[in-house]
Each structure stands twice: as structure tokens, then as C-alpha cells.
Amino acid sequence: MNRPPRRASEDGVASIVLVLLTTAFLALAGLVWDGGRAITARQHAADLAEQAARAGADDLNIDAARATGAEQIDQAAAVRDACRYVTVTAPGAACEATASTTGVTVRVTTTTSTAVLGVIGINTLTSHGHATATAVRGVTTASAGAP
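-> C-alpha cells emitted (147 positions)
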């Protein structure tokens, strides 16, 4: 069998298509891989904020509770303990906490390095988490079978 002669204009077309498809595949892989890492990092930041807020809300002002019978949070200790929880659990994370006499609010910022997107200059991803915890004593609602 004799093949018809190839035209000069078709030379190298397969190489160009291969280069374009490889680039598109790598970009897609980067979005999938690092996108999954970004979702995981965002959930981790939210978890850190929730646990830090709970740790801060545990700091009750005992003297005020004994005097008034109401739970009041020791605000300075709550802010300190909330951010201590974040620094011990995730040393690279940033913590911003505020407290009132009834609750603690924590904002956490984490950074995660990228695996594939670094090729195009995106080396880190920043994630934020936010949570509030309130001090509550005991059971506050009646159960279904209670008299």
C-alpha cells in the first residue's frame, strides 16, 4: 500500500495538540488537588475556631458566679486560653479572640502550601474560620418525660 504524500502544513500538529492537552491536564489536576487541600484547610480553620471558642468559654469568673449565681466569663482568661489553644494545636495559625461576660468569639487564619499550583506562582492558600461559644450551665430545657 502506498500512502499519499503528507502536506507540509500538517507537520507538527500532533505535537502542538499534545502540549496543549498536557497543559490543560496539569491545570485541571492542580485545581482538583489544591482545591481539595483548600477545602480541607477551610474546615480545619473552622474546627480550630470552634474548639478555641469552647476552650475560652470554659473560663468562668468564679467570684462573680458565687456572688450573683450567674455564669460570667473571665474575659482576659478566655481570650488568652482561646488563642493558646490555637497556637498549641496549629502553631502557624493566627488567632483573634474577643470575649464578653457571656461568650467568646474566635477568628482563625491558617495558610496551606500548594502542591501543584506553585508552578504558576500560587504557593500558599489562606483559610479563615470563625466561631462563637456561650457559657451555659447544666440542662436549660425540660425533657419530654419530665413532670
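The radius of gyration is 28 Å.
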